[in-house]
Design brief:
Chain lengths: ~400, ~600
Amino acid sequence: MSEIAPPPAEPPAPLGLYAHVPFCASTCDFCAFYQTEPTAEGIRRFLDGVAAEAGLVGWQSPVTTVFWGGGTPGLLPPPDLRRLGETVRARLGGRAVEWTVEITPASATEARLAVLREIGVTRISLGAQSFRPELLEALGRQHSREQIFRAYDRIRAAGFPSVNVDLMFALPGQDEAAWQADLGEALALAPDHLSTYCLTFEEDTKLWVKLSQGKVRLDPALEANLYEATWARLEAAGYAQYEISNFARPGHACRHNLDTWRMHEWIGLGPSAASQHAGWRGQNPSDLDRWLAGVAQGERMGEERVALTPALLVEDALVFGLRMNAGVDLPDVRRRFPGAPWPAVQAAVERLVDGELAEESGGILQLTPRGRLLADAVGVELLGVFTSPAAGRGSGEPG
Amino acid sequence: MDVSLTRNFCIIAHVDHGKTTLSDRLLEYTNTVQMRVMTDQHLDSMDLERERGITIKSHPVTMTYRAKDGKDYKLNLMDTPGHVDFSYEVSRSLAACEGAVLLIDAGQGVEAQTVANAHLAFAQKLKVIPVINKIDLPSANLELCTRQLEDILTIPAEEAILASGKSGIGIVDILEAVVQRVPPPRWAEYPQARILVFDSLYDAYRGCIAYVRVFSGTIKAHDMMMLMSTGQKAEVKEVGVFTPKMEKCASLGAGDVGYIVSSIKTPSEVKTGDTITIAARPATEMLPGYKEVRPMVFCGLYPLESDDYEKLKAGLGRLQLNDAAFVYSSESSIALGFGFRCGFLGLLHMEIIQERIRREHDVDIISTYPSVIYHIVKQGGEQIEVDNPVNMPDPGTILEIREPTIRASIIIPNDSMGDMLALIMEKRGVCDHTTTLDMNRVMLSAVLPLNEILVDFNDRLKSVTHGYGSMDYELGDYVPSDLVKMDILINGDPVDAFACIVHREKAEGKGRQLCEKLAEIIPPQMFKVAIQAAIGGKVIARDNVREMRKDVTAKCYGGDISRKRKLLDKQKEGKKKMKQIGKVSIPPDAFIQVLKN
């Protein structure tokens, strides 16, 4: 990575730590994340594995942000949460700048929240998804609307500095009025952060099956309308959009994710967790046993493995960076990756600006609202200027 | 040489009036072809000819017939192409005869082609023998047919022979009429050899085989022959007759119909209508009527799959070997890639070539809008010919554009008159004469621009006459016309495949139609895309491609990045397969879908 100049004047480079807790009580219709049913034995093996995997990583700098996702991290019994927390804390240089844990309404018990607070968690992300019983039912969620309120009150009572509420829209059977009602209920809770996700049909989900059977239908025009309605309403309510699906009150944007989108490094622990670290991007096996077997042999992030070449990082810094409202600092990216085909990039930028999909001012390239709705197409347009698939599909040493 | 026992004749008819079936009966009756080897439509050997009931290549055959006068006559029957596209070929086949059997379907009566073919026969001074065919049909109307013979064709009704090719009625009467009414071969006493080429065939082993009618002199193997139009000499390798298979013989003499194989390999060097003479004692005057055949209708042909380019090229080459009237040269188009500019005698000819490419050479092709040849007079008097709108010079340099016209004979039921006149007017035509054929039908004579009948005129004619109308045409003059080149622009970039030459008054309507169609077919785009029709720099119609509304992934965190990348890379590869017109990605078949309509 000698070609990559260090980002100037930025004190110790951020390093994220992501832990994937693969346990869920049931599988939601829309979920494509790897998860399995929790058993005492399974949890014990998982925790041992995380500790062992952490021992394989060549930690060169302290972790700045932590994110526990899943699955349902909140499903772990309090002593297990504490144990996972200890594994993490060993890698922190003092306190984490931000430490997020995803929790479902049904698992937000006072005992769990107390442990999380105690080990240093700063941010809770509550997977509410919807307040409408019929939509929760349709999604296959295992919680009620009342449980959302109770969980939220407990999280606040525990005193976490930052709380996010996850919502989903464009659900089958949800019109704009129903979505506005959900947004209203979420705003009434006054969380610090809101994530609103347009329902995505991922392969290997029950929803995908329903889609392919014609039981549910895609309606891109309605989805676009809902996106726009969401952006307007949340902005008016004091939540600044900082990414396609993420909104925060001042100072509450998720640092961990921002760092990821800026192509900083992170280390993922647990089955199916992805890492971007020490010159490589890769993923662990999406299976508890295979992941454990790998770790036992000293292997991690062996799947979807690509070398982090400057070209790949430039492409991704542009494509994923533009998803953020702050946009991409082109001169900065150019300083970090001078070898990219910049004239072609600039030409593509001009096309996007001409087409009113993006704006450029003082070297900062940002998508317009219309460009944001077409961020994938914009990404393809930008990738088009890079001649070959940039990533050297690596077979090199494990990171 | 005694030619008194030779008769050369052809059969002419409107399509489907039973020409080929009748020929078959004549072959059977004269034992030229045995019953057991007789398949229906023996003479139409090409699949396409059999299927469409039309004759494309000439199929001459020599029969022997013992007439009622006890003498054995040599009858040469020419089965001629029957379509107006091939009118020059028809005229050459007719020129090889002294008589013509004119078939009229007893149920249909005189049709447009009947009239056109009869006039061609009169022009060649042939003795015309009218035959009313299919008289055993329940719908047969003999009275009507004989009246039409007299009224429209001025042929005395008593000359008509009643026949049925299907059941063999009247076959002997026809053969007797040929012997008695058709004069023996003309110009047999001319002092030197004069041999008319009326068709040719390419054979992979023997090169070009000329189909000939000997008017005077004899020709045999090892003679040195000469083509009079070019002076080219060649050694005769073989001569023979059609039985109907080619059968070698010692020599061909005056009045004979047969073939000549020479040292000439290239079919295009042996032109239909040319006169062959003997190089040692050459004739000084060619047989009358020779002209260079020139394609009238042009279009671009492109392979649907660009990998098929070489296959298409080979296919066109092979078709051209047997069809000197068909020409092609390579061209390329921004929208369609690499292909060929092709020239045809007419619409049917174009359709046949396209179909044979698809069928016999197994290449899927797309054709651009057909065009005619325009004569352009430029400032300063220079004249150029343009068969591709792309090559139209800058409008500022043009003094005048002339377009080819046709003279059409259209036969329609009386009650379609209004609709038909409206159609002719819509197509910028002028109807200058109407003739009442019978109680129900009229014949219109009209002059129309050729480019207006290229695409859908025949379909529209059939539609306004509920299938009863028929049309034939001959080429007319070039006339000055207010024509303009219309470009179709996608975001300001012209798309060559859609450029066309249209009458100024029709440009806007056609422009709007094309813009609409493209806007509908091009999938939604991320960039704003304007589709415009323009003349010179002036936009006369426009439309917008639908804008892509939403294309964004909701969740994109660390673990999603690899997956997302793969997806975007895949989309990027897909985009490469699209045609890029400026910023716009258009699936290749979008153009095809528009051109198909």
